Amino acid sequence: MPGSKRRKSHKTGLPPGSLVHIGQERGEAVQIRLMDYDGETLRERQLTRIEEAFAFRHTPTVTWIDIDGLHEVEVVRKIGEEFGIHPLVQEDILNTTQRPKVEDHGSHLYIVARMISCGQDGRAEAEQLSIVVGPNYVITFQEKPGGDVLGSVRERLRHNRGRIRQHGADYLVYALLDTTVDHYFVVLEKLGDQLEELEDLLLEAPEVNVLHSIQQVRRDVLFVRQAAWPLREVVNHLHREVSPLVAQETKLYLRDIYDHLVQMIDMMEVLREVVVGLLDIYLFNLNNRLNEVMKVLALFTAVFIPLTFIVGVYGMNFHHMPELDLSWTYPALWAVMISIGVGMVLFFRKKKWL
User: Fold this and answer.
1) Containing H/E element for 60?
2) What are the pLDDT digits (tens) for 68-124?
3) d(CA 232, CA 97)
4) How many CB atoms are located within 10 Å of the residue 274 CB?
5) 23 pLDDT above the threshold of 90
6) Could you give the angle at the alpha carbon of 204 between the alpha carbons of 201 and 205, nearest 5°?
């Protein structure tokens, strides 16, 4: 993302499993939110220390620990030691350049997805979402404190809407992935609206700033595609592979996410074709304008060629040119040249070249 500082070089020479934050440097405090629920009750807390969540590890209820901010490495280390998260998983959580993937570590699953949203400038923005799934807990790690795309899931938990509180941790993971994918559609629809506006501007006035806007939309579409394409394989793996952490009933819902991702990839291909079409229209209009300019210049050149010939003839330094001694020669030449110029212009207009 623009403005972020990647520090991959800080890990050079370190052994596997070394915890180093790779991502945008931040100064905000890490926010820890806990939601513990079953079909009847819900407890929601804003924690000041990660140790406060450890007491919920072995409860029969489903526990969702949401950690916003990865720049405090010690928070990830402590929760990793308490919940038995593999050191390589902890390392990947802190590396915000991960490709969407899923890993089965026996006692827990590790899932990486990317949350896509539209920034204030209308550009697509991404934030890495890491999910650790256990038998009765879900731990999510986000890059930065603040707003995310998971608010609808929290509202469903608070108001007991849908089936989420009647199912286990795997269904909560489905809800998180489903909400993440739904926001992909929101971003793509906004990009489609931008392309429609750019098409209208392009047909009216193909300016350079319109070309820049088209290129930005093209980059945003590719940006979303880079997040959605591997996520499709992640969901497919969760749907097809056998894991005691994913119930058979939940796999039916995961297949629905997979279908949405396939539909979304088709939608992105259409947007890419639209972008290519707009670029072709821009180049066509640009060439057409250039041809119009060249045509006007060519017509002016055609008008002045015979005039230049006449002037060139009488500009020669010969001593014996009989007509130079006649008093009417000068106005006669002017009359001839003006007649030629006017006649050629009228001829071009008749041919609709002007």
Assistant:
1) none
2) 988 889 999 999 999 999 999 999 999 988 999 999 998 999 999 999 988 777 788
3) 18
4) 20
5) no
6) 80
Q: How far apart are the first and last CA of the chain?
A: 51
* Residue 137 · residue 213 · CB < 8 Å: no
CB 302: neighbour CB atoms within 10 A?
Answer: 14
Residue 207 has pLDDT above 80, yes or no: no
CATH number of 293-350: 1.20.58.340
Q: What are the residues facing 133 on neighbouring strands?
A: 109, 138
Sign of CA dihedral 128, 39, 135, 137: positive
| Overall size of the chain counted in residues | 354
- Distance (Å, rounded) from C-alpha 354 to C-alpha 348? 6
Distance, CA of 110 to chain centre: 25
For residues 182 and 264, give the distance between their C-alpha atoms in angstroms, rounded to a whole number.
10
For residue 352 the two structure tokens come to 């609709």
Residue 250: is its pLDDT beyond 70?
Answer: yes
Residue 22's SS3 state is: strand
Buried b (16+ CB within 10 A) or exposed e, 232-253: bebbbbbbeeeeebbbeebbeb
Q: Are 104 and 241 in contact (CB under 8 A)?
A: yes
The type of residue at 30 is V
Question: What is the DSSP-derived secondary structure letter of residue 265?
Answer: H
Strand partners, 137: 63
Looking at residue 85, the DSSP 8-state letter turns out to be -
Residue 229 identity: W
Q: 8-284 in CATH: which number?
A: 3.30.460.20
Integer Cα distance of 81 and 169 in angstroms: 20
Q: Which two tokens stand for residue 23?
A: 């991502």
Nearest to 266 by CA among 230, 223, 215, 228: 228
Whether 8-284 and 293-350 share one fold: the answer is no
- Each domain of the chain, given as residue ranges in start order, spans 8-284, 293-350
Exposure of 204 by Cβ count < 10 A (0-12 exposed, 13-18 middle, 19+ buried)? exposed
Instruction: Please name the amino acid found at residue 88.
Output: L
